[in-house]
Amino acid sequence: MSGPVSNEIEARSREGEDNEQSQNACVAGASGLVGSNIVKAALAKGYRVNGTMRDANDEGKRPYLVALPGAAERLTLFSADSAESTSFDAALDGADALLIARFPPSTRPRTGLPLKNWIGQEVMTRL
């Protein structure tokens, strides 16, 4: 294909190669089975990843993540508590995508109310 449209597409493609801006993904629940595989795949694709876990310093869960290829350059781990909606703010800063790989608790931690009584309110608060 040739002409002005194809030339513009090729030019944009070359600009993207020169800039090579990484996309940023936030993975909530990065230390779990599903979350860690999402982190691994995102790093392999060249994404910068902000991973959240209950305790980012947990030596039982952290070593696997920081040993992944690309992690030293493109992975940042954050402590985040689902009971505190603002605890995700730093991890979400600059994120192009949010991938949630965690199970919500079955009861609200502070009140013990069943999940069905508060999930809608919590989701709306966090959005």
Instruction: Tell me the span between the first and last alpha carbons.
Output: 44 Å
Strand content: 15-25%
Strand order of the largest sheet: 3-2-1-4
Number of strands: 4
User: Helical region count?
Assistant: 6
Largest sheet: 4 strands, parallel
Class from helix and strand fractions: alpha/beta
The outline comes out as globular
- Enumerate the spans where pLDDT stays under 50 for 5 or more consecutive residues: 1-20, 117-127
Please state the CA-atom Rg, rounded to the nearest Å. 19 Å
Helix content: 25-40%
Mean pLDDT: 77
Order of helices and strands: HEHEHHEHEH
How would you sum up this structure, described in words?
Helices cover 39% and strands 16% of the residues. Mean pLDDT is 77; it is low at 1-20 and 117-127. It has helices at residues 4-19, 33-44, 62-66, 71-74, 89-92, 119-126, and strands spanning 24-28, 48-53, 75-79, 97-100. The protein has a four-stranded parallel β-sheet with strand order 3-2-1-4. The longest helix has 16 residues, at 4-19. It has 127 residues and is an alpha/beta fold.
